Amino acid sequence: MTELAELFEAEQMAEDLGPRYNVAPTDPAAVVVERPDGRRGITVFQWGLVPHWADSPAVAARHINARSETVASSPTFRDAFRRHRCIVPADGFFEWTRDGNARQPHLIRRRDRMPLAFAGIWATWRPVVDSQPRRSFAILTTRANDAIAGLHDRMPVALAPEQWARWLDPKADADGELLAILEPPDAEPYETFPVPPLVNNVRNQGPGLIGRLPTLL
Length: 217
What we know:
Layout: H1 2-7, E1 11-12, E2 28-34, E3 40-47, E4 65-67, H2 78-83, E5 85-90, E6 93-99, E7 102-110, E8 116-125, E9 134-143, E10 154-156, H3 164-168, H4 177-181, E11 190-194
Parallel strand pairs: 1-3, 3-9, 4-9
Antiparallel strand pairs: 2-3, 5-8, 6-7, 7-11, 8-9, 9-10
């Protein structure tokens, strides 16, 4: 997480999670936030947003993603979109295709291997007043561009470095410029390739999960 802190010019605020190759919904993951003093921090939240008004944290598994087209109006996500935005760093992400009953995972990453900076939103939930808070996040998605469309009709919103400051700025116009940021660019510097089905089991970890499988010509 130290390298990410340097990349995002953020103070490391949580213990390093170490290398992970198969982050699943409800797992903890690193996020970049803007602190009240205006400085950036990198910390760890749970993947799967739990709104502050939720009755139970069990809703997290249903709220791992937020559609960019409806995030400003959704009762679940709109408060977080207006007030609590974050960046979710990742080396890549997986999508699946199906051949009969078999599910084939594919890794999607930048061609230059630089980390992706996903647009995220976060929330704080407490089981009772004054109890220990649980902070969680969701990743915003948009329609897939040509690089991803052959695998899935949706893709995470990846922010360019020049967009990071505006996305994190709590004073940014959520209904104007931020919604425009969520539009997918026509092209992304992505590469995609099939990887071993080991990634289909969330308990599996290690670099073998992102090894490129041979493809037939």
